[in-house]
Write a structure and sequence with these properties.
Elements lengths: L12 E2 L6 E2 H5 L3 E6 L6 H12 L1 H6 L2 E7 L3 H15 L7 E3 L4 H5 L14 E6 L5 E7 L7 H16 L2 E2 L10 E3 L5 H7 L5 E4 L2 E4 L5
Parallel strand pairs: 3-4, 4-5
Antiparallel strand pairs: 1-2, 3-6, 6-7, 8-9, 9-11, 10-11
The protein binds benzoic acid (BEZ).
Length: 211
C-alpha cells in the first residue's frame, strides 16, 4: 500500500519493547513520528536511535510521540538498547516495534525490494492528531537521517495549520514566514497587522505569528 500525503494512516497492533502496541491507542490525540531503520546491531541505526533518544524532550515539548520500527525481535531490541546506551550515552526512551512478521513494514510500504527484500529502508512518517499523513521521507541504508529536520518540519506543520502562512526554504522557528498567495492584501491587513514585505505580489513575508 502506498501512503500519500493527507491519507488517513492504517492502524495496527504489533509487539514492541513496551509490549503489544495498538498504534491508534498509542498515538491518542498527539502527533506521531513513526520511523523505520534496516536492522538491529547495525552502526548507522545505532547512531540514529541515540540521536532520537537525545531529542525526546524536543519531541515531547511539541506533543509528538515517537515510535521506531525494526524487523527484529523485542529481545534483540532490548540487547541492542544496552549497546545504544553504552555507545551513544543515552537510554532508549521510546518504544521500538518488533516487526518480525513485517506486518507494519508492508502496511506502510517500508520494504523496497530493489533495495532489500528483508530489511526496511529508512522511512519517516509524520502523522497528525487526526491520523493524517503529513510528511514522508525515505533514505537509503547508508545515510543516517537528520532528526533536527524532522523537528523543523513539525514546527512548520504546527504553525501553518494555525495560520495562513507557509515557511520558506531552510526556515527555522522564529524566522519570517510567507503569507499564503490565496490571502488577499485586504485579508492580510487583518491577519498580519504588523505588516509584510512584498518582494513580488505572490511573495510576501511577515514576522512569524505567535503560536
Ligand atoms: C547501518 O545501520 O549501519 C546499516 C544498515 C544496513 C545496511 C547498511 C548500514
Amino acid at each position: 500500500m502506498t501512503l500519500q500525503l493527507n491519507d488517513t494512516v492504517p492502524n495496527f497492533t504489533q509487539d514492541s519493547t513496551k509490549g503489544p502496541i495498538n498504534f491508534f491507542d498509542y498515538a491518542g490525540n498527539s502527533w506521531v513520528v513513526l520511523f523505520s531503520h534496516p536492522k538491529d546491531f547495525t552502526p548507522v541505526c545505532t547512531t540514529e536511535l541515540g540521536a532520537v533518544a537525545k531529542l525526546k524532550p524536543e519531541f515531547d515539548s511539541r506533543d509528538v510521540k515517537i515510535l521506531g520500527v525494526s524487523v527484529d525481535a523485542a529481545q534483540d531490541h532490548e540487547k541492542w538498547a544496552r549497546d545504544i546506551e553504552e555507545t551513544q550515552g543515552v537510554k532508549l526512551n521510546f518504544p521500538l516495534l518488533a516487526d518480525r512478521n513485517r506486518r507494519v513494514s508492508f502496511l506502510y510500504d517500508m520494504i523496497h525490494p530493489n533495495a532489500s527484500d528483508t530489511m526496511t529502508v529508512r522511512t519517516v512518517f509524520i502523522i497528525d492528531p487526526n491520523k493524517k499523513l503529513r510528511l514522508t521521507l525515505t533514505y537509503p541504508a547508508s545515510t543516517g537521517r537528520n532528526f533536527q529536520e524532522i523537528l523543523r518540519v513539525v514546527d512548520s506543520l504546527q504553525l501553518t495549520d494555525k495560520h495562513k502562512v507557509a515557511t520558506p526554504a531552510d526556515w527555522r522557528q522564529g524566522q519570517d514566514v510567507i503569507i499564503l498567495p490565496a490571502v488577499s492584501n485586504d485579508e492580510a491587513m487583518r491577519l498580519f497587522p504588523q505588516g509584510w514585505k512584498e518582494h513580488r505580489p505572490y511573495l510576501r513575508t511577515t514576522r512569524q505569528p505567535a503560536a
